[in-house]
Structures are given as structure tokens and as C-alpha cells.
Specification:
Helix content: 25-40%
Largest sheet: 4 strands, antiparallel
Distance between the termini: 11 Å
Radius of gyration: 15 Å
Strand order of the largest sheet: 2-3-1-4
Order of helices and strands: EHEHEHE
């Protein structure tokens, strides 16, 4: 079974083009280092729930969009290897990437697949 990292974050609408450019660069790097898939999605039908919701989870404001993304790997060991290489890659250290979104409000985690159809 595969392993996946999942992410939810809020991006200011005014910085969405910069985020998309960053995601294209990051996605290419993850794929270069061996990720199976790299997917970024912009919230289209994500209502602010009364108790729980994607926007509530990242404290999204009205001037922000919710991004839902995931990266798929062969295994957790492969994910750990790829992520170590990504974090050491100078292409991921760009100053132009700062201030595109508030990383403190990002929700993320690693998940072991138990069903793949």
C-alpha cells in the first residue's frame, strides 16, 4: 500500500498566482525525487461549517481560498527519504516563497493507505 502526505491551507486570493507558481516548482521537485503523485486543488465547494469544515480548520478569511493537496509515495520510508532530500534542496529555499501563505494555519499529516481501488 502507498503512503500519502495531506495538506490543507488558506491562500490569500491576491497571492494565488504566486502560490500556483510555487506549487508547480515544488511538484516538479517532488516528482523528480520519486513521489508517485503531487496534487493541488483549489476549494470550489467548501462551506464554512458551524462546527467543523476545511475553512474553519485553517481559519480561512473571506479574502482567502482553501487549498487541499496531497503527495503519494511508495511507502513511508520512501516519503521520509524524499522529504529529506527536498528539504536539503536549494531550490526549496527561495526567498520568493516567503509570505505566500501562513504556514502556522496549515494542517498536514502523513497517512498510510489501507484501501486502494
Amino acid at each position: 500500500m502507498t503512503y500519502a502526505d495531506g495538506f490543507i491551507l488558506a491562500v490569500p486570493k491576491a497571492k494565488l498566482d504566486a502560490y500556483k507558481a510555487m506549487a508547480r516548482t515544488a511538484g516538479a521537485l517532488w516528482k523528480e525525487y520519486g513521489a508517485i503523485d503531487y496534487v493541488e486543488c483549489i476549494g470550489d465547494d467548501v462551506r464554512y461549517g458551524e462546527l467543523t469544515s476545511f475553512p474553519r480548520a485553517v481559519q480561512a478569511r473571506e479574502d482567502e481560498v482553501v487549498i487541499f493537496s496531497w503527495i503519494t509515495y511508495e511507502s513511508r520510508a520512501k516519503r521520509d527519504e524524499i522529504n529529506a532530500r527536498i528539504m536539503a534542496d536549494p531550490r526549496m529555499q527561495g526567498e520568493e516563497w516567503k509570505d505566500i501563505f501562513d504556514g502556522k494555519r496549515m494542517v498536514w499529516g502523513g497517512f498510510e493507505a489501507f484501501l486502494e481501488l
